[in-house]
Amino acid sequence: MDYQIELRHFKYFLAVAEDLHFRKAAERLFISQPGLSRQIKQMEDDLGIQLFVRHNRKVELTAAGIYLKQEITQVLKGIDYAIDYAKLIQQGKLGKLKFGYVGSAMQKIIPDVLLQFKKEHPNVQFGFQEMSNQQQIESLLSQDIDIGFVRLDSVPRGLTLQPILKETFCLVLPKNHPIDTHNFKNLQQFKDESFILFDPSYSASYYEKVLQIFVDSDFAPIVSHNTIHAASIYKLVEHNFGLSIVPKSLQSGYNMNVKFIELTNIKQRTTLSAVWNNNNRNPLVQFLLDKI
């Protein structure tokens, strides 16, 4: 069938699908409301698909409209990416990679990977955003980032998880704390202390693993604060608001008055993994994965 559909029709459709209001969508598109209504009706007639159910005061997507909204959103993102990539090629920058990461990945893993990658791809641009594990998963599914670095045991279908670093945990104490590596015996020594932990929203599975450390030590921790940033944890520990437990890789990169005791005598380990969307069409993703 010969559809008389142009790219602008899809953009009009998405605007109405997002706002569910013809007047608001028309204002955003800088066209008249009657004109937008005619364009959408013509699109429905040409496709032979009802996209909206129109009521007196509101508009609803049909089941077919909901599906088309999801698919067209991804198609237009692909077009935008292709145009952006072509512009970068013209500028001699040869592409861009967008990273999401938990803080510990930036201490060593990402810099090491990028140093290797830049040797062969010196003109690639990078974008970085520190995000929680769940935020990275959502951004990977929507292809707003190309690759993530997470502390998760599993990911949704369509994503691939590749472990890259398995490490021990460390106890974090103020520098003036009386216990150090010489007189440390076990965590039971701290059963009456307060603890500052990464918030469960950072990673539910990671949080449960840390809590299991306390279970194995036969006490429930007094959790005084939760946060998603290591710097906040260290600042609170430094000022004697409590102790903490963090991955070993977070020992470096922070200039604060805290000290670490590596917990080599416990069974728990934490794994940092790379994760990506199998449907991501950015050719640089595979080049990067070859360096991990």
List keywords for this structure.
single chain; 292 residues; alpha/beta; Arc Repressor Mutant, subunit A; D-Maltodextrin-Binding Protein, domain 2; 3 domains; 5-stranded mixed β-sheet; 3-stranded antiparallel β-sheet; 9 helices; elongated
Write a structural description.
With about 290 residues, this protein is an alpha/beta fold. The chain folds into three domains: about 5-85, Arc Repressor Mutant, subunit A (Orthogonal Bundle); about 95-165 and about 270-290, Periplasmic binding protein-like II (D-Maltodextrin-Binding Protein, domain 2, 3-Layer(aba) Sandwich); about 170-270, D-Maltodextrin-Binding Protein, domain 2 (3-Layer(aba) Sandwich), CATH 3.40.190. The chain is built from nine helices and twelve strands. It has helices at about 5-20, 20-30, 35-45, 65-90, 110-120, 135-140, 205-215, 230-240, 285-290, and strands spanning about 50-55, 60, 95-100, 125-130, 145-150, 160-165, 170-175, 195-200, 220-225, 245, 260, 270-275. The strands form four sheets. The protein has a five-stranded mixed beta sheet with strand order 4-3-5-12-6, covered by helices on one side. Strands 10-7-11 form a three-stranded antiparallel beta sheet. The chain has a two-stranded antiparallel sheet with strand order 1-2. Helix 1 packs across helix 2 (about 20-30). The model has no long low-confidence stretch (mean pLDDT about 90).
